Amino acid sequence: MTPQHKPGSKASRDALRQEMTATGCRTAEIAVEMRARWRMRPREAWRHSLGWTLQEAADRLNALGTERPGEAVAADASLLGKWEKWPGPSERRPTLAVLVLLAQLYGCDVEDLLDLDDLRELPANDLRVLRHTASVAQPRKNETTKAPSAEVPPTGVELVRSAAAESAAWAQWAEVSNVGDIALEQLMADARSLAADYLTDEPMDLFRRTRVLRDRVFALLEGHQHPRQSADLYVAAGYLCGLLAWMSSDLGQLREADTQGRTAWLCADLAGHNDLRAWALSTRSKIPFWDGRLKDAVTHARHGASYHPGGTVGVLLACQEADAWSMIGARAEAQQALDQADTARDRVTGTDDIGGLFSCPELRRANYASSVHLRTGDPARALNEAHEALVNEPFHAYGTTAQMHISEAAAHIALRCPDGAAEALRPVLALPPERRMTPVTTRMRELSETIARSTMVDSSTAIALREEIQGFVTESAPRRVALSSREAGPDWIQGHGH
User: pTM of the predicted model, to two decimals?
Assistant: First the structure.
């Protein structure tokens, strides 16, 4: 007995599609049959004729859009459903660009996705474009070509009506968007995932994924959306460029990192977003610090703090200022900045927009503090700060943890305890090469130089440690990137990315 399905249900659609496909029917014929049987809108019928859910079709549409500069959309199931149901009440009119993408996706003409109800509601300008495109693409046989007649400009009442119609057409254009609110939420959620994953996962893979998402946001910004949605896209783009800046710096590519940081700052400025401004300046403080431009690092950190941001970025900015002052040798300024970090920690309000890499929990603050205490001549305090944080604070990132262990080792060297240094370095030396980023390898080189200047330089433990450190920094992620750039040429960064 043939099973009975509810008319228009998924089961009945699947059965019809399978039956018609088996008899050699084309997708267009299946769409027409579905419209006739279940009174579907044309865009809905074409999607069902291919057997796609709303989300599947939205994902395919987004992917297709990113392949065409200026045509990107950020559709979700909800927005696509509204495009299908238009011109019904509370639905969304698809733009011509969206209709063209849908036609390419479904393998049909734009006219196949429109019925009489659609044509009645489309703006006059859109109809003219459609008819002109159709006449150019498919001229009718035996049709004589007529010279275009000169258009007589309207006057009087017709002029007023024409102006009103033009304003109405523009208002309809301004009302539509290539991105939905749910899709914007998803973009930010994806950025948060990347920022969190970078703390624990393989960095080059995270660089590639971040670059792909940034390109998608850039493509959306080249399209049309409401001003509020444009601001949200600039925020997403700014955080993603900030992530790429931080990652590039960790890979030892400081000029590229600086470029990403400037773009992040531009996005923050365009969005008028103070928290993003602060995080962009935190990123821009990190880059000159590792480039030896310490006064610039202080300037960017102080500039970021001037925006009085929420979340934990104020803590990080003060820590970065202290770090730079300690490298300069300004002990009083470094301690004052550390005190500001403690104050900022106690006054944290709200949560971080992104989190992960863009957050400063207690373990990260303690990492900066222990480094500053070492440079300002207080190894006992540095050792205590690092040890207490490693024992009592939740894990933040493998890079932060590695630097804490290096601070422990350096403090042990200063306190004439080479065995303690060797013990502290065990977790660091065990890091796989792809996780040995520039901040860690630089700190390891500094530690080797500290050992060389110590009175224990000739001890067997010290000699063994220096040899292990040499092997550690030789096999590192920045060195692999440098080697790949020589092999692949100057465009290596386009395919790669703490």
Answer: 0.72
Which tens digits make up the pLDDT trace of 2-28? Answer: 455 667 788 899 999 999 998 889 999
Per-residue model confidence (pLDDT) at position 140? 42
Query: Coil, strand, or helix at residue 121?
Result: helix
Q: Classify residue 90 by its DSSP letter.
A: T
In angstroms, the CA 8 to CA 35 distance is 10
- Retrieve residue 464's tokens: 């063994």
Mean pLDDT within 134-146? 47
Q: Which two tokens stand for residue 225?
A: 């959306």
**Token pair of 456, please?**
């224990």
By CB neighbour count within 10 A (0-12 exposed, 13-18 middle, 19+ buried), where does 420 fall? middle
Query: What mean pLDDT is reported for the chain?
Result: 87
